[in-house]
Amino acid sequence: MSYRPAYVLPHKHRLTAFLASNVLLALLWLPAATANEAAGTGSADSGPVATTMPSSKIENFALWQDSEFSTFFYDTTADFSQYDQAVFFPMTFDRMALTGAGNNEYIASWEKSTFEEMDEICQFFDDYIQKTFKRSDVLQATQRGGPNVLAIEFRMKDFMPTSMRREDALDTVGESRNRLGVGTLTFQAVLVESQTGKLVAVIEDGLEIKSSSYAADDRVGRNLAWKRSFQRVVQKLRDDIETRQAI
């Protein structure tokens, strides 16, 4: 699997870059629904879908200092209390950059990752976020768009491995003696109004992929490290949405 080269934007350009690069969700989500509506075959599960992206005014965005995430830019004109449902897109990894502090062995190992391997990791996140918001009193997961529905996508951005990928790290008995964890992941998230395509918020943060629950770095321990780390991210999202709904 190939990855784009790592490139870090200066902080002052980060919000502009977010707004420029994240005009995607309204144009990408539920594309089949648009085609079905045009053909007159839309299903009951397909809500209205934005087909154009409204311009986002940078001056309307501010950095929320009380967020659980390190960076939470939000549209100050948005009323979070109006949203009670969300469409959660699968986590993506296609633009993830591998970074490192000179350990070429780790980088070379992760560069061999297949689509199936990375998709399995992302599925841990997708399963938990759907489970968390399935019956949540903050946002309920849905597949239908509407004026009260957010569309949310998380993306892997940068990954600094502190060990080789699972398939290379484990020995013949399926266990490694590495105690540094899997690595450190930086991620981004985009929140837009599902019906209008209006950008509501952009999030960025990082987390260490490591689990202390297992003494051995085996297959179970590796999977658990990803799952536990993703659970913390989802909980932060839930807490932040709940807080902003009450403001």
From TrEMBL:
Residues 1-35 form the signal peptide. It comes from the Bacteria. Keywords: Signal. This is DUF3313 domain-containing protein. It comes from Gilvimarinus algae. The lineage of its organism: Bacteria, Pseudomonadati, Pseudomonadota, Gammaproteobacteria, Cellvibrionales.
